[in-house]
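[job 0412] stage=fold_complex status=start
inputs:
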Amino acid sequence: MTERSIPQHVAIIMDGNGRWAQARGKKRTSGHKVGVEKARETVEIAGKLGVESLTLFAFSSENWQRPEEEVSFLMELFVVALKREVKMLNKHGVRLRFLGDTTAFNKKLQQSIAEAEELTANNDKLRLNVAANYGGRWDIVNSVNQFITEHQGKKAITEAELEANLSTSQLPNLDLLIRTGGETRISNFLIWQAAYAELFFTDVLWPDFGQAEFEKAVESYSSRQRRFGKTGEQVDAK
Ligand code: IPE
Ligand code: IPE
Ligand code: MG
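[job 0412] stage=fold_complex status=done
writing structure:
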């Protein structure tokens, strides 16, 4: 058997919590609770597989439009989960970072985020990036605006310069984007970064995700030929 290749940077759209709960006659929020457990498990699996960077989509810039009760439940859940998990993450050498406009969160959550990032800043094992109040369009506009400010509008931006100010600039290129929950869309996640990522969509709802499905995604990734515009023969010849 040929050695499988492990993606350096995996991103996951963790979708399906609400439907998972509703199918069990429970409130959507109970699905989010299980979702957090799954996120923790997934971090462990990623570490074992040898993934360098894992980016989890926890809350999109569009998710504010959900019922207020669900939004505030999620905010509280983030605070509690952060407090509970950060020590263990730190012990395992995980470097935690948040991607997105976190200034929109309440003070308590902003503080937990800052503390968690600071505590884990010098760790060198898995890079765990939590996308919260993240939108791919926001990321791009934010980068361009930084450039405009820096150059006072006197210079046209290049792709490399745009990339340098994205929230992911310190991370390896995105190799594999997984979405659970059956929808085959990107929902304004890493739209720039996904330009040449391999996509893996599964019907498995996020609370049912686990090692088996993660391995399936990696197997699928490993079996693909990434051509980046070249012919298959050119890539084989390398
Ligand atoms: C994803 O699950 C989690 C968040 C967006 C926070 P959903 O809550 O979107 O679950 P479904 O899609 O309604 O089942
Ligand atoms: C995307 O899921 C956001 C997260 C997983 C955090 P959504 O459930 O919000 O996406 P749409 O609205 O179905 O596209
Ligand atoms: Mg959803």
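[job 0412] summary: The two ends are 20 Å apart (CA to CA).
[job 0412] exit 0
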